[in-house]
Known about the structure:
This protein is mostly beta strands. Helix content is 6%, strand content 42%. The protein is built from 2 helices and 26 strands. The strands form 7 sheets. Strands 4, 7, 8, 10, 11 and 12 form a 6-stranded mixed β-sheet that branches. Strands 15, 18, 19, 21, 22 and 23 form a 6-stranded mixed β-sheet that branches. Residues 1-39, 259-266 and 300-351 have low confidence and may be disordered.
Amino acid sequence: MGAMKHKFAPGLVTFAVAAITTACSSSNPLQPTNSSAASTSVSFVAPHATTPAGDSQIPWRSQPITITVANGAATASGASTYTIEVATDAGFSNIVFSNGNVPQGSGGQTGLAIGTLPGDTTYHWRVRVTTGGVTGPNSAASAFSIGTQPTVQTPAPLSPGQNGMGASPTTTLTTQNAQTSGPVGAIVYRFQVADSSAFTNIVFDSTTAQQSGDQTSIAVTARLTEGATYYWRVQAIDSTDGITTSFSTVFAFQMPVGVLFDHPWTGRVETVLHDLLASGLAGPDGSNGQAVVDQMNAMGGIFAGAVFQPHHNGIGDPTFGFGWFYVSFVPIGNGTSFYQIVEYGAPPFGD
């Protein structure tokens, strides 16, 4: 037979397989047995690699891949099965995948989907056929490479920070965008808010696409109770590559208490006071309320004549002042660190 030039060309290989026939003496079983041996030959046409083609570059996300071979042939009778081996070296000393019982496929080809393999690696594979209990030679080896495996790290929550303050009427959650490597797909973030750190009762659960820059935010559309403590966490999802990170560290935050006034926020004093309180200058529990008074006085005395009493109980007249109006932080309940802002009296119209 002339030599075939294609490196995957099937070869004709002949194996001598000895068949042993043994005869034993019934009169003296301890005597040496008489034996005769007959030799038979099995010829094989070795299977050869079809896909993936030699030296293929396969993206990691294209896995699992299917190995396909052109069926071999043998002169022996009986069913044919195939052994497929994948290794990280050409000598097949480090085999990472092996299946020795792949049934022969129809149409002249046999295929097998193999599991997901690590990326950034070149793999070598080969196949051999077993027919009628006799195994033929290995095919010529072929190689393919798996590209870089994408990774997504768990995102880090930013705000509200641990034991921070939410906002009324809408709290915004912000996370640091997840660190990634490799050819990742589009990333979305799943934000959850619960009324306990165990997250047994989730009051807000929503996703949003990653935003430009290095941070992503979402507005909490659920109605959160004033003065209550909530807990939030976030995870990143790359659905293209089937990657979902674990949830982030859990942060607790408190909702502020609403501001109650005995008249609308229409005057100059109310407008400025509203803006200063919204800036957080007074602190989450009103402990820095005097800073608000000092700031308003520094802005031209528009707060002159008012009296600020951080822990006023809301009963009785102010101790001192010009009888105009005053603002106080009134404790809510016993032993709580939350206060409610209350204005008593009414300033002149327009102030």
